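WARN  no MSA supplied for this record, continuing single-sequence
INFO  ligand: zinc ion
INFO  echoing inputs
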Amino acid sequence: MMDDTPGVALAVYAHPDDADVACGGTLARWAKAGSAVHLVVCTDGGKGSFNPKAVPKKLAAARAGELEASSAIIGLTSVTSLGFPDGELVDSDEFRCTLVERVRLLRPDVVCGHDPSALFFGQEYFNHRDHRIAGTALLDAVSPAAALPLYFPDAGPPHQVATVLLSGTLEPDVWVDVTDTIECKAAAVECHRTQFADAQGWAGEAVRRRAEEEGRRAGTSFAEGFRRLTLGG
Ligand SMILES: [Zn+2]
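INFO  complex generated
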C-alpha cells in the first residue's frame, strides 16, 4: 500500500476519460491532501463513438466539456489537452519533447500513465493503440530524456522524476487506498456520458466493483493498483 502524498503529481493519459477510469480515486485523494495534481490528455477523443453519424470535431468538443466537469470533481490543478487526433497518436520526437517540457516545467514527484507493456486483458479486451503509444512515449520522456540536459536542451532545466505509477497494468505491485474518494471517482467517470451511454449510474457501479476487487487484493474496501517504478536512485 502506498500512503505517501506527492507534492506535485502529473498524470498523462491518451483520452479524455482515461485518467478518471485509471486513477481518478488516487488523483482525488492527493488533491484533497493538498498535492498539485496536473493532467495531460494527449488526444481529443474525437473517434470514441459507435455512431457512424458522429462528427469527430463535435464529439471532441463534447468530450472536452465532460473532461472539464470531471476535472473539477477530482480537484485537478491543471488540465492540458494536446489535441492529437484520436487513434493517431505517434511516438514522435515532437510528442516526446512536449511531454519532456511538461515534466521539466511542473517538476512532478510522481508521474502516472498507461503501462505500455500490457497488451491482452483476458480474452475480451486488448489495450488501445493510443494507450500503448502514450505509455511508451511517457516512459521515454521521463527517463532518461527529462532527467538529462542533452536531451531536448531547449525544453527547460532537467528534472528527475522519483516515482512512476503505471495503471492498466497486468502486474500491479502497489495499491492506493481510495476508500475516501471512491464516490468522487465514480462521479467523475459518470461525467463522460459520450463513453458510457448505458443507463445512468452504470459506469459508477462498474467503477465501484473494480475498485472493490483491487481493495480485496490490497486489504482495504476500495483501491487502485499500479506497477511502481522508483527512478534516479
Ligand atoms: Zn483511452
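Helices lie at 18-32, 56-74, 93-106, 129-142, 182-190, 202-218.
INFO  checksum written, moving to next record
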